[in-house]
Amino acid sequence: MEVTPLNASFGCEITGLDINAGVSAAQFKPVRAAFEAYSLVIIRSKPLTDETQIAFSEHFGKCEKTLKGNPAAGSVFARQSNIDINTGETIPADDRRMFYQKANMQWHADSAFKPRASLCSILSAREIPGAGGDTEIASTRLGYAALSDARKAEIEALYAEYSIVWSRSLIGYQFTDEERADMYRVRHKLVRANPANGAKSMLIGAHAMNIAGWEQDKGLALLNDLCDHCTQPEFVYRHQWQDGDVMIWDNRACVHRATPYDAGAERRLMQRTTIADPAAEALDQEAVVA
Ligand code: OGA
Ligand code: MN
Fold this sequence. Notes:
This protein is α+β, with helices and mostly antiparallel strands. It is built from eight helices and 15 strands. The chain has a single domain, classed as 4-Layer Sandwich (Double-stranded beta-helix). The chain has a seven-stranded mixed sheet with strand order 1-2-3-13-5-15-4, with helices on one face.
């Protein structure tokens, strides 16, 4: 197994690891170390199966159950695809069922809107389009490091509020009352230090709707500033998918977004597993604000 950094401190590529053959605890150790160090790990692989993806994901922790709204809701997979889960036929980009694809084109951190925020997401390419459909990832760790000392001091102790009802409203999507029933507004610390190495990052992106206790206009202006800052080209990696690629991003330290492809003509299927952050467990109850 070989770990090749893409950059001094953000992103690395791993070759020579066959996830489908099963990954031992000893083999996983350098993967976890690379994840903590680089926030983004790309593993060149043969396409995973659902079973091998789950087994590999569980090395990171417990897989979250997917909420209502995704076609794979109720399983541990979030399905990012234009292929109808029941018929296998493609769904055109303007179909209501493709709203989550549109939502994914906003910069975001997965599951920031959940009472327990996420450690990481693991996205596995099962079918990739001939053109387009790249994924962009921005490092909020690099972005944080480049902030002025005054700005760092200003945001150090802040909590932000997150809501998926909010982020979906930005793209004109409304959940049904039934879907909204188990959706909350939650609060998490905006600036967070990685427990393994102390590197600070920010939990920002489309789900962040305000700073706790602030007027929303002012809170959003700050959050949007921080997101614009972190998504400047120097902090962004754009991944062009190859068949079978597996990408792991640190939801504590990155935001990411999907980019367009021709959903009428191409097929794309990505399966995502999402790991809850064990360090966020203590926050479970107090995180829910509304
Ligand atoms: C995700 C996501 C982007 C993409 O799986 O969480 O945002 O390019 N995916 O599919
Ligand atoms: Mn996502």
